[in-house]
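Structure in, sequence out. Go:
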């Protein structure tokens, strides 16, 4: 499988061509081509070799509406196939988002991403029949859940090519042309792109150096009346406050702005979102984010102060995440 081969994305583009977003099919294809021409990761060929080596599996039920996305059945995979599948998927380590399942092989990722989905799924506009954009979608775990919740089409974008390869591994077995992950950052999208029914930005805002511009960009991507689902690191305080960590935050180098929930609401209203509401505020626990067999690196338990887990090891408030929705 060659990620730079645009025919990989054609089945999705063919579906998009039947929507009001049809005028952007060609500009999106050009954006993917230009992004991949400009930079491919040094490990891309190794990841592509892993994708090419994925074993055939017995048929199963495609499951997109339960915690573990993938192929389900009562079958126990033959030991040789299970070993081969595990080793091949491990070539795409670290698996940060999940869980996924391949018959009886369970891929337990660093994050219990299903928990976040459960916190927001019933609070947002129904996705049935909607054309959805997921900005910074990672390996596409949520894109599958959005399709499982009835979305007509889901376009994820993420510039991290490993995550795009992880998506292709799942797509290899799920075979659903209505869902894709394009190897793009938000800055690579055609400037006039607009018309999505729902746009998700989850875990991205605090990585942006210009968070208000990020919110404004998200608004232009929506059709009038479309819904933004914003999930981000936040501070638990009633006043408008913003933490700009002087250095790392929970060991992450690229955290710029962590607003209070109150500040987030004001930012969204100032940028013209209507019916802004906070649907969830939850502290991230070490049960939700932790190292597993599929993610061997350090994780949240290593990034909290052992003497006071309400603080990061740098002394900041420990991670708390808010989900805020609003309409364009
Ligand atoms: N310029 C960019 N444009 C778009 N995406 C970007 C950019 N730069 C980095 N990313 C991507 O943004 C994602 C942030 S993670 C959230 C994943 C998922 N949404 C989740 O909610 O679990 C953070 C977290 O785990 O909280 C990564 O996949 C990056 O590659």
């Amino acid at each position: 499988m060659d990620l730079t081969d645009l025919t990989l994305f054609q089945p999705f583009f063919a579906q998009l061509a039947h929507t009001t977003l049809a005028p952007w099919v060609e500009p999106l294809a050009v954006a993917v081509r230009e992004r991949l021409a400009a930079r491919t990761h040094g490990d891309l060929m190794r990841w592509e070799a892993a994708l090419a080596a994925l074993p055939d599996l017995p048929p199963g039920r495609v499951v997109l509406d339960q915690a573990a996305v993938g192929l389900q059945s009562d079958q126990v995979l033959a030991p040789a196939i299970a070993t081969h599948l595990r080793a091949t998927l491990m070539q795409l380590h670290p698996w940060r988002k999940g869980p996924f399942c391949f018959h009886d092989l369970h891929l337990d990722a660093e994050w219990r991403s299903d928990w976040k989905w459960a916190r927001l799924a019933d609070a947002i506009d129904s996705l049935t029949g909607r054309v959805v954009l997921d900005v910074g979608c990672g390996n596409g775990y949520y894109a599958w859940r959005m399709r499982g919740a009835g979305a007509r089409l889901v376009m994820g974008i993420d510039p991290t090519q490993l995550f795009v390869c992880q998506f292709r591994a799942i797509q290899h077995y799920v075979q659903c042309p209505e869902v894709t992950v394009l190897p793009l950052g938000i800055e690579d999208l055609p400037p006039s792109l607009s018309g999505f029914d729902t746009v998700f930005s989850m875990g991205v805002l605090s990585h942006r150096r210009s968070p208000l511009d990020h919110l404004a960009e998200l608004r232009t991507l929506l059709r009038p009346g479309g819904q933004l689902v914003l999930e981000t690191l936040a501070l638990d305080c009633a006043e408008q406050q913003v933490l700009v960590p002087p250095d790392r935050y929970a060991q992450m180098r690229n955290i710029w702005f962590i607003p209070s929930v109150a500040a987030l609401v004001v930012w969204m209203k100032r940028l013209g979102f209507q019916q802004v509401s906070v649907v969830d505020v939850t502290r991230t626990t070490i049960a939700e984010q932790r190292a597993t067999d599929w993610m061997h690196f350090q994780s949240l338990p290593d990034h909290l102060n052992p003497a006071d887990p309400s603080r990061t090891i740098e002394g900041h408030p420990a991670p708390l995440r808010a989900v805020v929705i609003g309409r364009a």
